[in-house]
Amino acid sequence: MFRMAEILSNPYVQPLIATLLIIALFPLVAGYIVLAERKVLADLQVRLGPMRVGPYGFLQPLADAFKLLLKEDIIPAAADKWLFWGAPVLSTFTALTSFAVLPLSDKFYVADVNIGMLFVLAMSSIGILGLILGGWSSNSKYSLLGSLRSAAQMVSYEVPLGFAVVTGLMVAGTLSMQGIVNAQLEKGVWIAFSNYGLMLVPTVLFLIAGVAETNRAPFDLPEAESEIVAGFHTEYSGFRFALYFLAEYAAIFVISSLAVTLFFGGWLRPFPNVAFLEMPLNTVFPALLFGAIGAGCAVGVTRLMLPEQKGVLAVVALAMFALAAMFLVPALNPFIRGLFWFLFKVAIIVYTFIWYRGTFPRFRYDQLMDLGWRYLIPISMGSLIVNGIVLLATT
Amino acid sequence: MAAGATFLDTNEIVLNMGPQHPSTHGVLRVILKLDGETVRGCECVIGYLHRGVEKIAENRTYKQFAPYVDRMDYVAAVSNALGYCLAVETLGAVEVPERAQAVRVILSELNRIASHLLWLGTHALDIGAITPVFYCFREREEVLKIFERYCGARLTTHAFRIGGLEYETYDAFEKDCITFCDWFDKKVDEYEELLTTNRIWVGRTKGVGIIDAAKCKEYGVTGPVLRAAGVKWDLRKAQPYSGYEKYDFDIPVCHNSDTYDRYIVRMQEFRQSVRIIRQAVDSLPQGPIMGKVSKVYKPPIGEAYVSIEAPKGELGYYVVSDGSVQAYRLRIRPPSFVNLQALDEMCRGSLIADVVAIIGTIDIVLGEVDR
Amino acid sequence: MKEFLKTVFLVDLLQGLWVTFRNQKPSLVYTEEYPRERPPVAERYRGAPRLNVHPESNETLCIACNLCALACPEHLIVVAAERNEETRRKELTTFTYDVSRCMFCGLCEDACPVDALELTQDFELAYFTREGAIWDRQMLEEGPLPTQYKF
Predict the structure, then answer these.
(1) Which of A328, A348, A368 finishes a domain?
(2) Strand C89-98 vs strand C134-135: parallel, antiparallel, or unpaired?
(3) A48-56: long-range contacts at Cβ-Cβ below 8 A with a sequence spacing of 24 or more?
(4) CA angle A349, A355, A358 (to 5 degrees)
(5) How near does any CA of chain B get to the CA of C44, in Å?
(6) Which residues of A touch B (CB under 8 A)?
(7) Which among A230, A226, A208 has a CA at the least distance from the CA of A218?
(8) How many C-alpha atoms does A64 have within 13 Å on its Cβ side?
(9) I need a labelling partner for A351 at 20 to 30 A (CA). Which of A366, B43, B218, B266 fits?
(10) A283 and A239 inside one domain
(11) d(CA A62, CA B69)
(12) DSSP-derived 3-state class of residue B44
């Protein structure tokens, strides 16, 4: 027992365990974000989405991963072999490294660097290089053009993203991710709603620039214009394509986490300092949520026909009920409620990303750059100045 | 390189949007001449779907040829059949009874709605909005269900015969049509809410693909493209056929002749078609459905050209008869074939990303272009 | 002024988002999970052909008049008959129908004077060989057999 406590108090052990857990779990999580995207898009489009693999399609990511692993690995003859190999690795590496500073909970995180926010922004900038190298190494005129456009778009939208982040940081007062969340805990209000509602402008700007950063609709012209100018990942197949895909969904997760940490309270519950809401929001709400999901799964079990699908869904239902029960145990609640609120808010923002993809048409490339440089940058600068003045005047 | 020229001087590059392409609505090959990002001109190469339909017509009897005609504009087959039957009936001076004419009008207007729905879905998909295509196909399902219940097939309907109709309308036909009209009006409102004022949609379609009225007339462009250029020309009003003069409807016209206006014109045409269907169903006369046609149809020697307002423009059939049971020559004037000529004019000066939108807005079906 | 406010507050975009959001009701899902749910085809659907027989005596209704073969645009029906010396009538011997070239136009069904040839509602007509598409009289009279799926 004492050996255990000694080992755990070693400052390298907890981050190592957290890192291993994240790296082991993230491909699964990314796979399920892909499934969520397909199912949510299907819902918006009045259809069903994957339904065959597993109950209601819930084992589809495993089938996709299996398929991608088994595909033939094609490298174009004239391609630069090492760069071709290295480009998706670079993208995935930078996306996953950003996970190191995300404040997943007050108890569970890899590291709390005191320049955490700057680290994430730097990592996403380096990730752009992965895109450019992907297009370059494919040795195709149109791949290169597509990747350069994509990179230009991402670089241009980093500016309003940065300004929105700086505005949020002014209120938070620190670059450390845990510090930002603790600042919101002290203030008692999420940064998005502070400063007399003026911080809503940077919040909206961050969400728009975040969608453009990750090359998602309505800003996905470099990817979708694979009709004429092939996108950077045309020549990639099989597992390399899976790596790019993983990098894209990891970037979506990271940008959503940034938004949640900086503007929506991180792992805090709504109204973090209001005492009488502690019990309903931290105990009752998660228990009810997981209980409802479990009940839905149980109803789904009765409607399925194949016994193996029924078995899988029954296990999922039991797991949901177990989770709901865990929230009701007062000793366990403080350890898991931070993670619950963080993931819940990230899920909502990822849902809105998918919602935008399903609703909006695409911007044309010149309109996209126009929007970024002529509208978003001046507005973000203006909001920085206004928020700064109001902050200075009120403190 | 010319003296004084640097490597930054641009010259034209030729880009091929090949026959296999997700956005060319069939097997169309477009060769673009680009100057950097801007399109300087384009050339269409067609013929990948040529099936020799006009030659087949010379070797089939008039009655046997009717199913082949559906396969030209396979998206909306009923109007092809209407044009063919009218042309052959004019040749033989066959009179079509009123009930048959009214049912033909109802099915043609349902067909127009189905064709425009497919156009809207695929056009929105090309521009990047991935949901309207599913909504539009859901509505199209309802129309195709009515076609299936009436004549037994959804797409290649073979709905009309020379001289009238083969099948009497089924029992719930009128009720189905009215239910559809009521449901569909709300759906058009939904599409307008989703797209018409959306700033991204407006930004992608306003000012794109402009062709003025004079050029339209020069090329022979007809249909919604012509009406969006400000010319109020619709064959249903100008040269009425099959009883269209009995119904009260408007012709939507816009004046900027860009992609956005063609979108508005076709959305208005949805509503006008619903109006016509309601009036036709309310005033559906009783009576025979087939005119006096001999079993073996032998029209007298002569020729006839009849054109109708198909959803995509003016669809014309020119039939030459030599007195036998088979046509001597059948020439089809497809609207998509003639409208496609204007692609070069419309694409000049636009960006590559707009070419896809412009091909979508002309509303072509390669089955018709190539026959 | 109103237009300016609408532009600033992204009203048109929010309107579009609301349209897609309200289409998420599970009751609005339009998918039919084929092959678990087969679509209910109409009565007049022009599907696989069938040669009808008299319900009681199991004799074929076809009188070998050859009108269907003459009506077919693709000339894919071949009707062979022999003259029965006792009743001085033609009787059907073989009837061949090439389903691979058929375009299901229904002209043969329209031409048949005794409703012997009928296009049924079966649309699942995949076959493994080209020869499997040429149906003889026995296949036409039995009618197509619907495929069974395990789920």
Answers:
(1) A328
(2) antiparallel
(3) A48/C29, A48/C31, A48/C33, A51/C33, A54/A309, A54/A312, A55/A300, A55/A301, A55/A304, A55/A309, A55/A310, A55/A312, A55/A313, A55/A316, A56/A300, A56/A304, A56/A313
(4) 150
(5) 5
(6) 41, 44-47, 217-218, 220-221, 224-225, 227-229, 357-367
(7) A208
(8) 21
(9) A366
(10) no
(11) 48
(12) strand
Q: Is residue C21 part of a domain?
A: no
Is residue C119 situated within a structural domain?
yes
Cα(B75)–Cα(B156) distance, rounded to whole angstroms?
A: 9
- Reported as type and span, the H/E element at residue C84 is strand C77-84
Domains of chain B (ranges, CATH numbers) = 50-370 (1.10.645.10)
Number of domains in chain A: 2
Contact: A367, B204; criterion CB under 8 Å: yes
pLDDT band at B281 (very low <50, low <70, confident <90, very high): very high
Residue burial B253-273, b: 16+ Cβ < 10 Å; e: rest: bbebbbbbbbbbbbbbbbbbb
Look at residues A280, A303, A328 and tell me which one is the last residue of a structural domain: A328
**Residue-wise pLDDT tens digits, B109-160:** 999 999 999 999 999 888 888 899 999 999 999 999 999 999 888 888 888 9
- Under 8 Å CB pairs connecting chains A and B tally to 70
Domain count, chain C: 1
C127 is in which domain, residue-wise?
49-142
Distance between CA atoms of residues B170 and A381, nearest Å: 67
Strand partners, B38: B35, B351
| Contact (CB<8Å) A227/B354 | no
- The answer to whether C28 contacts chain A (CB < 8 Å) is yes
Give SS3 for B321: strand
Q: Indicate if A314 and A169 belong to the same structural domain.
A: no
Q: Is the torsion defined by CA of B202, B134, B308, B235 positive or negative?
A: negative
Expressed as residue numbers, the domain containing A111 is 73-268+336-394
Token reading at C111: 């031409």
Q: Going by C-beta distance under 8 Å and a sequence separation of 6 or more, which residues neighbour residue B15?
A: A228, B31, B32, B33, B34, B352
**Do A214 and A276 belong together in one domain?**
no
What percent of chain A has pLDDT above 70?
95
CB neighbour list of residue A230: distance below 8 Å, 6 or more residues apart: A140, A142, A143, A146
Other residues' Cβ atoms within 10 Å of the Cβ of residue B63: 21
Tell me the per-residue pLDDT of B359-371, one tens digit each, with 9 for 90 and over. 888 888 888 898 8
Q: In sequence order, which residues have a C-beta less than 8 Å from that of residue A139 and are 6 or more positions away?
A: A76, A78, A79, A80
* pLDDT given at position B1: 42
**Closest listed residue to residue B126, CA positions, set B114, B118, B138:** B118
Based on the fold, state whether residues A280 and A224 are members of the same structural domain: no
Domain-embedded: residue A48: no
Q: Give pTM, 2 decimals.
A: 0.89
Q: Return the closest-CA partner of residue B330 out of B310, B313, B311, B305.
A: B305
Q: Report the complex ipTM.
A: 0.85
